[in-house]
């Protein structure tokens, strides 16, 4: 489309592209400086720079607990989702499994079922099972949402793996368990880790299920931000957002690195 | 890259080329093996004996079931029926990791997360060989294929030929019963391929390996094997030495699949031991060599390789047909001559030194009865 | 002896079993619970169990029987959770108004009189002599009911059991659904209108330009949804950056109302969902060999024709699956509308959440949830057909 494109079309393309990039990135960029605003209003202009709102995150009991809760619940959900999702991805790979694609579609359903619908059902069920307002309940609820991401990521790296490697290993004398431990597992490790990172990020950002199943003791960072935006919008939200964006960039960097490394290792000469 | 091979390890001395001395002893035996995928029969009631120390090639067109047979031997595919025995013991229900067979895959299947040395050590580690012994054997094996300088590299950093050699070493280092290779040279360029053919043949000779080698390159099969099994649609068309396969194909498929041939249809007229007279449908009478039983009057095909056809000005040969030169093509080491006459057309490859044949020249096409074969149509 | 195929199958089943069990318990069971809640109604039954049994046998013809009165008195004398009792009364009142005073008067009379003492209900309140109160009670008794499902689409059963439209100011569910559909459709259209040209430009560019265009799409996708919503909050509010900027350049004197209304919801949701539109279109366009456009042009097709006959057909599958995805996600969206939407302009998810957490009306929450679930599932299945890789959502 380049080359002999007319100049007017070319300019229109550039203007449009710049406008959309601006639309996509401006809000994220705009919130960052407010984290360092000393004012009590979440608003421009910035009066003076200070780190008081980061201090607030630390000293305010609500914020501090919510950060700790997010880490606890995120880790729990990540572990559950990664273990279950990885096992299932391995099973779904077998050509001997009947209805494999239907099962896969079902396993991915939590990604598309509206969170509110699932939340309502969970709230009702948890009341009966005695899981309401418990860490276990929140961890499990988050894990349900995280599983599709692990499944997709691990399945991706299994698909990318040369299927002959496992045959080669068993022809060389490795039992199925050892084939898994010494060949399959190390090769799909980047996929598992990517899935785990996705899972953690998903849990960190989860609000809706938390609203339905968590009690005040399990309030997560995202839930706390939700409440703060809704009730008494304070610049602590911007500080929390800043932390999350920085965390996201680190995670994105990590995933990028893992992908790059696995591609480098698996690429044939 | 031309690598002279070092002397064989002590353990291999004394079992050099077992197959070529004395009668063949059945080492691996496939009995009445069939394999179907769904309703599709890929291997059909196959019998095959593999002798210890032999280099057996499985040759056939794409989809004829070669890989499937190799995978059944290696234990990755289960036969639908039939038995596989190794030294008299059934192995068809043994899982792959307990069969002690070395397999070289077409794409090498080197473990990407391990170095060359770790790849080669893998089968030894799996067998619980002690660390020091494993290290020593790995070093010796890697040295033998001249890869010592790259033993700490990952497979992605190797050239195709180096990867090939690592895969081969990995499949040999644990002294397997038999080495199975599925088109191991298919991915290499022509020059490297020819070099690796020599190396493989040398390894086979020195170590006394039993090798089952799948290829669809007939030249490769002819130069490397002790025996060739020609496959077609899941069945063996002919199993014989390269010379026998080439000079005396037993079926029309083999005659046409291997090399180039002139084929004439006719009827058996008179017999004299292995020699027989055949009246071609086009008219002329031909004397030929028989490998299978034919009744008098039975329809038959006569196959003659182009390089066995001579051109002569006189007709004093057992088989001599008057022909006319249609076309000549210069081929470097020989002339390729297209001939027609006596109601047949044929191709001859003739020595350039004998004489230059002009297009339109009259001559006799001659061939020796021992150098043509009669095949059932 | 087991065949190796059989062993492989068992192993595969063993591997997926843990997840299967986990999702059955924590995904399917909750959804089933919600569905069951949408068709069950135990509010009155739970409080008046004996009356329920007796009324079930009553044919509804003729005057109320003494047996019915006796069972009601027995039920009312039972100790009962006052919240549950309140729910039951409210439920009866919705069947026929007047039950509130009737029930409280009768209950205190029943409790006041001595144990085992017979009571003349008609003497306590003459309305008990009227069969229509007993009929209303009978209608409220069955365990399984379609009233929530009907109510979810603004219908109800009248006294004679026929389906009829609900009073216009009692419920507004149809209006909410229409609104949800409109908002989701507008967001989808906007995403398509921005996403298609954007993806085309990205696919046609090279090097760092393409990298920037892609990062601009991926970065928001990676950023926490709450962060993005908070960011829009900052931009859109009356003293926010946009209004400030417009005021500074003198375009407006009063702040534009951009937040707590539909404008804000649509802007923020478009921002959130745009990547889901761009990525499928872009990956579809990547399959075009770079020389196809010049090739089409050299075959004599004008640029516009080449665009229409070469580029658009290739972008179309991505556009379709992107649109379905955006629409599907937008339908069930909760957080963004809840934070930047207007109080009277909520989407269906907010209404469901309101019924569940605000009023503990599980039946209505379940019924609306069921409708949303069915629509989403159908869209997902269509999407899976269309894109043949339902995994696109995650990448
Ligand atoms: N797992 C399978 N399921 C169904 N059909 C199969 C399977 N494996 C092989 N086949 C079929 O069996 C036939 C023989 O396959 P095989 O791989 O043995 O052929 P081949 O002789 O090795 O061919 P090539 O020279 O192309 O490698 C083919 O038609 C193939 O499609
Ligand atoms: Mg093959």
Automatic annotation (TrEMBL), chain A:
Family: Belongs to the binding-protein-dependent transport system permease family.
Keyword Cytoplasm found: no
Main localization (coarse): membrane
Keyword Isomerase: no
Organism of provenance: Aminobacter carboxidus
Signal peptide: none
Subcellular location: Cell inner membrane; Cell membrane
Transmembrane segments: 12-36, 67-90, 102-126, 132-154, 187-213, 233-258
Domain ABC transmembrane type-1: 67-255
PROSITE patterns: ABC_TM1 (PS50928)
Keywords assigned: Cell inner membrane, Cell membrane, Membrane, Transmembrane, Transmembrane helix, Transport
InterPro entries (alphabetical): MetI-like, MetI-like_sf
Top-level division of the source organism's lineage: Bacteria
Name the record gives this protein: ABC transporter permease
Pfam name, any one: BPD_transp_1
Topology with respect to the bilayer: Multi-pass membrane protein
From TrEMBL, chain C:
Transmembrane segments: 12-32, 176-200, 212-235, 265-289, 310-335, 362-383
Keyword hit for Thylakoid: no
Domain ABC transmembrane type-1 positions: 177-383
InterPro entries on file: MetI-like (IPR000515), MetI-like_sf (IPR035906)
Source species, domain of life: Bacteria
Taxonomic lineage of the native organism: Bacteria, Pseudomonadati, Pseudomonadota, Alphaproteobacteria, Hyphomicrobiales
Protein name in UniProt: ABC transporter permease
PANTHER family for this protein: ABC TRANSPORTER PERMEASE PROTEIN (PTHR42929:SF5), INNER MEMBRANE ABC TRANSPORTER PERMEASE PROTEIN YDCU-RELATED-RELATED (PTHR42929)
Bilayer disposition of the protein: Multi-pass membrane protein
UniProt-annotated location(s): Cell membrane
Entry keywords, A to Z: Cell membrane, Membrane, Transmembrane, Transmembrane helix, Transport
Protein family (similarity comment): Belongs to the binding-protein-dependent transport system permease family. CysTW subfamily.
